[in-house]
Amino acid sequence: MSASTLPNATLTATYESMTPGSAALAAKARGLMPSGLSHDSRHFDPYPLYVQRALGPVKWDVDNNKYVDYFGGHGALILGHNHPAVMAAVQAALENGTHFGACHELEVRWAELVTQMVPSAERVRFTSSGTEATLMAVRLARAYTGRSKLVRFRGHFHGWHDHMTSGHANHFDGTATSGVIEGVADNVLLCDPNDVEGITRIFNDHKDIAAVILEPTGGNFGKMPILPSFVSLLRDLTKQAGTILIFDEVVTGFRVSPGGVQAALGITPDMTTLAKILSGGLPGGAVVGRKDILDWLDFKVTKAAGREKVAHPGTFNANPVSAAAGIATLEILASTDACARANAFGDTVRAKMNEVLEDEGVKWAVHGTHSSMHIYTNPEGADIVPSRFDAASFIQKMIDKPRGEGITGQVRMGLLVNGVDMNSGPSGWISAMHGEEELAITVDAFRATIRALKREGMVR
Ligand SMILES: Cc1ncc(COP(=O)(O)O)c(C=O)c1O
Prior knowledge:
With 460 residues, this protein is an alpha/beta fold. The chain folds into two domains: 3-81 and 338-455, Aspartate Aminotransferase, domain 1 (Alpha-Beta Complex); 84-335, Aspartate Aminotransferase, domain 2, CATH 3.40.640. 40% of the residues lie in helices and 14% in strands. The chain has 17 helices and 15 strands. It has helices at residues 11-18, 20-30, 84-96, 105-117, 130-145, 182-186, 196-205, 219-222, 228-241, 260-265, 291-294, 299-305, 320-335, 338-360, 395-399, 407-417, 436-455; strands at residues 51-55, 58-61, 66-69, 123-127, 149-153, 188-191, 209-214, 224-225, 244-248, 271-275, 285-289, 365-367, 372-376, 420-421, 427-429. The strands form three sheets. A seven-stranded mixed beta sheet has the order 4-11-10-9-7-5-6, with helices on both faces. α6 (182-186) links the parallel β5 (149-153) and β6. α3 packs antiparallel against α13, α14 runs parallel beside α17 (436-455) and α16 crosses α17 (436-455). The radius of gyration is 22 Å and the shape is globular. Pyridoxal-5'-phosphate binds at residues 74, 129-131, 134, 157-159, 215, 248, 250-251, 275, 285. Pyridoxal-5'-phosphate (PLP) binds next to α5.
């Protein structure tokens, strides 16, 4: 079933008629988990989709509806779902056991690959998630510098620990969000992306900045692009001030290029946080960087220097099954053009979706770089030419807009009922497995969505 087979139904009614199994599971889940969810970004009205299986660039829900998938395991699946080499590596690892409570050979190979691929990675410490990686990166920067302040950029996402909450989706004035103490918020300085004067002022006014962290293609994987010249300025300012520059490459690492944004830009940070693709679709993360900084985790070095070591346990750090999936994935990325193919698909799909907007006379834009796509629904009604949209000049208008509500939720709904899933941005992560067939389905689904929204009077 699709929207086109129910031409007079609203998108929501079509969704509800297609997904009774998801509705039933959501009703049960709401009695068990807050909002019935395990991740805020899966929130969707009237209820989220329940997925049963996936393969390559597609997935099926519990009602057997098939979707071209741009949720992509929250960005973890650059090789698509169930890549045969990754699955074989996971199965082989499972034969040996899921957890040894000990060091193992796979983590050594995994770390070796990371140091070969990521320019800043002199040393690697595995964590269990991207959130844990950014948490450890900040702690190491503070231990190393003996300073307290962390500089972040409005709209950039670095996980959900206490230092990373304000200024991403709300509290743009830097005040503490629910459950976070003022003392933490007081040590975070927020700056607007690409604001040269603002960042210069921050460095002039504060001499106790331990670290600057950023998503190096811009907030939400380039939805709010950061200019390479600004990243370069950050490199200079941090170097002069003795501040640690942290690239959060949890999404962009092994995606923008095999060596991430740092390899593509030729700008090497002091530390990098990694997750998602790092562990091939299984849980995992890592903080990597300069040896003299990661030495704060080293028993011998800290003892010799008379310093208190930074502690770092973690039951699932470098889990062998995640390591196996990560090794298989990174070896493919290092030796093939998978990243470049995903990037090329991104260029094509964004251009074709913009053609749809221009054909339909709708002043929205599909933008992004590399293997991302972001749909800008132009709430202010600016005079936009879709194919020439300059996202960097719209950052302020994007930063504090709720996602997944109103028109953006309806866009996602329209795509879903026409066989395409992306997140509620609406944004999508592209894999190297997306090809001609998925391109055609996506462009048709987008056209059907725009036409349905016009029928519903939500787009003119
Ligand atoms: C840029 C960035 N940093 C950090 C994180 C947090 O990673 P995790 O969800 O593995 O904790 C994410 C997750 O989406 C992310 O996109």
